[in-house]
Amino acid sequence: MVKVKVPATTANVGPGFDSLGIALTLYNEIEVEEINSGLSIEVKGRDSEKIDTDENNLVYKSMIKTFNEIGYDYKGLKIKQYNNIPIGRGLGSSAASIIGAIVAANKLAGNVLTQDEILDIAVEIEGHPDNVAPALFGGVVVSCSHENHTNYIKFPVDERLKFIVAIPEVILSTKDSRNVLPKKVTFEDAVFNLSRSSLLVASLMSGDLEKLDIALQDRLHQPYRIGLLNSLKNISKESKKQGLNRVFLSGAGPSVIYITWDMEDDEDENKFYNIIKKLPEEWSIQILKGDNKGII
Ligand code: HSE
Known about the structure:
Elements: E1 2-11, E2 20-35, E3 39-45, H1 58-70, E4 76-83, H2 93-108, H3 115-126, H4 132-137, E5 140-146, E6 149-155, E7 161-168, H5 174-179, H6 187-206, H7 212-215, H8 222-225, H9 230-241, E8 247-249, E9 256-261, H10 267-277, E10 283-288
Parallel strand pairs: 3-4
Antiparallel strand pairs: 1-2, 2-4, 2-5, 5-6, 7-9, 7-10, 8-9
């Protein structure tokens, strides 16, 4: 029997579309056991009623893909999932399932895969590396997929950083959220994002957090996605009006994060809570830190 604990992740982090992600202190647990035959899946915890417990289950499908890659002949599987990461809210729940499944399958098969191979299988399933890489390694991970292989660099999340995560009840599929993105962007917008994304990585690496106000700006995905929900339009408008610059969509949304750090009298933190509290729809808030371990 093997057991893994895998973190939630926030991808894009403003301008780093499909290339930047941070692991957060919110975890799913997966327990798997090889049995003589058949399949048994039990899911408990947050949003468990939304998860398939048959052959369509993402943990199961990712385990089978891994066994096939390795050439491991399994007999039957018993899978138990305990979830805390909400589904379809932009906090890497599918990445957690995929990474959890590949790592668990690899353990059952005798640890034959390298970390790089685990990541490559995960990216093949997920389609982009920005959630799966930090779910695997923890920390802040910059990744770049090239010719079926993902190159990455991980560095620790600054201990001072605090992620105030606002999570709506409503679900938004990554597919729908990717469908609203433009096929082409202007040269100006491309330069806007690459300068912010570079500044963001340098700011997170060096600890020069004051630069985050500018470094989190984005023109590649958020302007298109906030139109998907009235509450996102509202949060964006109010945040701008009240001078909150460190508010961004988590992954493909719909969760929104206000990033801050240990500061005296953080009035902006209260302003963010008030914006969320005033929304007509149901939103909850969770305060998280960066996870530097990744899956264990
Ligand atoms: N980079 C991805 C997106 C993350 O924004 O569509 C969502 O999984």
